[in-house]
Design brief:
- Helices cover about 40% and strands about 25% of the residues.
- The protein is an alpha/beta fold.
- Strands 3, 4, 5, 6, 7, 8, 9, 10, 11, 12 and 13 form an eleven-stranded mixed beta sheet that branches.
- α1 (about 5-15) packs across α4 (about 60-85) and α2 (about 20-25) packs across α3 (about 30-45).
């Protein structure tokens, strides 16, 4: 039994024709037929029922073909592992990012990564912190960008930057005349926040505890961009991470003001399993993030822990 024979039976199953399958596999039809016959003899089962007009897959053949696909997938993964061992910057990196970071961080780092590691494209999963944690622990993601705290056994975290928050207001709001906003005063307004499943919403409440203490008028939305549009319509005010307030995202209908010192902010980190075998890929990703030149990404000393 060899991998080529498995490729041949899959080709025949999909083409339902030996000649077309042979052409697809770049072998002669007799060579393909002989390889499949030897595989059937080795397994002791008939995979295909042949006639002059058609090829049918037997019941046993269906299961064998399904397993053949799995074997070929695993064989491809073995080659991928070997390639990545020789060159950790070769092959995709499966990166998870929380919703309130992904749309703003990724456009900043992907051009740099294309230069630093052109053979390492990103496969990106945007999700909530809890879902990213589960995917990371299950090995379905290689690393995640999240906001601290993120204490998971067997997971290493590296703090990347601090990001300040800003207050977003309708452009005709009375607070536009203010130089900065005291967090306590948010409790006096109709505040728009993300649903509680988003950690950013929890961070805003931690920075402005009076929002809950006084039973403030709070309305929830599904994304920062949806909330920004509701602010533009005059529905209320909100809090945005600084990266969501760069020039490309601004609108004349929304004005932002900084918080009064001390400025509320979040600490963003990269996390990965301690057993992950491509440390150079992690270092390259960190390097790309640290090359961002923006006051929204306030660099901090490297802090790693398991």
């Amino acid at each position: 039994m060899n991998l080529n024979a498995l490729r041949y039976i899959i080709a025949v199953a999909e083409e339902r024709h030996f000649r077309r399958a042979a052409q697809r596999c770049f072998v002669s039809q007799p060579a393909l037929s002989l390889a499949i016959q030897k595989l059937e003899e080795a397994l002791g089962v008939l995979i295909f029922e042949r006639s002059k007009t058609q090829v049918e897959i037997t019941i046993a053949g269906e299961r064998i073909i399904q397993q053949a696909r799995r074997v070929l997938d695993e064989a491809a993964r073995l080659k991928e592992f070997a390639t990545q061992h020789r060159n950790p910057l070769s092959g995709p990196l499966r990166l998870g990012v929380i919703y309130t970071i992904g749309p703003y961080l990724l456009p900043e780092i992907i051009p740099t990564l294309r230069h630093l590691a052109p053979a390492m494209p990103l496969i990106v999963e945007e999700n909530t912190t809890s879902n990213l944690e589960a995917l990371l622990r299950a090995g379905k993601l290689d690393a995640v960008v999240i906001a601290l705290p993120f204490e998971i056994p067997g997971v290493v975290t590296r703090a990347l930057y601090d990001e300040p928050f800003v207050v977003a207001l309708p452009s005709d709001h009375a607070w536009v005349k203010k130089r900065d906003i005291n967090p306590v005063s948010l409790a006096e307004e109709h505040v728009l926040l993300l649903h509680s499943g988003h950690c950013f919403s929890n961070q805003v409440v931690e920075a402005c505890p009076d929002l809950l203490r006084h039973g403030s008028d709070i309305q929830h939305g599904n994304s920062l961009e949806t909330i920004r549009n509701m602010v533009a319509s005059g529905l209320g005010i909100t809090v945005l991470p600084c990266s969501a307030n760069t020039e490309k995202y601004r609108t004349p209908l929304v004005t932002t003001r900084p918080f009064a010192a001390p400025t509320p902010m979040r600490r963003v980190a990269l996390a990965w399993r301690a057993s992950f075998t491509r440390p150079s890929a992690i270092d390259t990703l960190v390097d790309a993030i640290r090359q961002i030149k923006s006051p929204c990404y306030q660099a901090i000393p490297t802090i790693s822990r398991a």
